[in-house]
């Protein structure tokens, strides 16, 4: 049981790190657009703040989104097929992200069209971290020494 929890904890940490990497990539893209358009770059703390914000979002989404998605994927793919786990976890995480973002945008007073667009972007944003959150525990299980598989599950 502790081995399985450790594998999933490692997957959650990697999913949080993926959000930090996404924050760096988004900041680099925004900075490039600002330089090309000769606009304000946001100051010296814009990059670190955006990366910190992305990390906080990743930490918040682990129990709200990645944990339910990976648990449902584990239950749905009993035989341990990685592709089936990816598909199920991506569908669950995408649906949960769409609901969370839609509720947040409606609560802040955005229009329905903007809320739908934001929820679609939210679903796309969680696909890579979800794939990592599912792949890391699966890969950790494959890398463990050859002992009976039932011991690790």
Automatic annotation (TrEMBL):
The keyword Transmembrane helix applies. The chain crosses the membrane at residues 12-37, 49-71, 83-106, 112-134. Keywords: Membrane, Transmembrane, Transmembrane helix. It comes from the Bacteria. This is Uncharacterized protein. It comes from Actinomadura violacea.
């Amino acid at each position: 049981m502790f081995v399985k929890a450790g594998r999933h904890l490692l997957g959650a940490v990697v999913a949080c790190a993926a959000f930090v990497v996404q924050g760096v990539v988004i900041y680099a893209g925004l900075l490039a657009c600002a330089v090309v358009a000769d606009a304000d770059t946001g100051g010296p703390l814009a990059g670190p703040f955006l990366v910190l914000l992305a990390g906080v979002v990743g930490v918040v989404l682990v129990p709200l989104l990645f944990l339910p998605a990976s648990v449902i994927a584990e239950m749905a793919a009993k035989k341990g097929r990685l592709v089936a786990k990816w598909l199920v976890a991506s569908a669950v995480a995408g649906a949960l992200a769409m609901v969370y973002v839609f509720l947040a945008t409606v609560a802040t007073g955005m229009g329905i069209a903007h809320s739908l667009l934001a929820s679609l972007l939210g679903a796309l944003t969680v696909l890579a971290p979800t794939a990592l959150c599912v792949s890391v525990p699966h890969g950790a299980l494959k890398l463990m020494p050859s002992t009976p598989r039932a011991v690790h599950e």
